[in-house]
Task: inverse folding
């Protein structure tokens, strides 16, 4: 892939993870209501911790804590085609209870529909290569077609209390 940034040409080689199990679960999801913060900038340098803390503060202040809260991040842009400072990300908490927008915290619906869900175990630093493997190997071989909706990740555990190689992330790829 070749892209031009500030009159320089950068050639990027797609990374693949040969050991990734490319047997996703095909799921049909119901829409989910979430509170969220929108961040813009390089995925590698965004302050995810601060965003999660603000969302949890909102949950605490509004007495919305309950079982079943999901940690989800929606990535709106492909860093291979979008300039790093323009990458858009939504940091979300899916809540079983109804929430209302307040300040910089919004409420949105995460679209339901058909998804291919890949379970990845390992450090977050390899997620870019996981996406490359999904898009360059699984997608062309599967016969599935992408739906016009962003991919998202659901985090099943937390790096504060889980070894990096044991982190579990569900990657949801929207398909027709």
Result:
């Amino acid at each position: 892939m070749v892209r031009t940034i500030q009159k320089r040409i950068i050639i990027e080689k797609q990374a693949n993870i040969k050991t990734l199990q490319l047997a996703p679960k095909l799921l049909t999801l119901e829409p989910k209501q979430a509170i969220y913060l929108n961040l813009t900038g390089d995925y590698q340098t965004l302050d995810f911790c601060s965003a999660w803390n603000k969302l949890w503060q909102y949950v605490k202040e509004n007495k919305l804590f309950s079982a079943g809260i999901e940690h989800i991040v929606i990535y709106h842009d492909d860093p291979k085609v979008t300039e790093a400072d323009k990458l858009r990300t939504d940091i979300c908490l899916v809540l079983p209870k109804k929430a209302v927008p307040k300040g910089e915290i919004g409420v949105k619906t995460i679209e339901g529909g058909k998804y291919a869900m890949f379970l990845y175990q390992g450090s977050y630093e390899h997620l870019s290569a996981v996406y490359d493997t999904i898009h360059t190997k699984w997608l062309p071989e599967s016969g599935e077609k992408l739906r016009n909706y962003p991919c998202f990740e659901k985090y099943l555990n937390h790096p504060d209390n889980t070894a990096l190689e044991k982190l579990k992330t569900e990657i949801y790829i929207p398909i027709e």
In short: The two ends are 26 Å apart (CA to CA). The chain has two domains: 11-30+111-176, 32-110. The chain has two helices and ten strands.
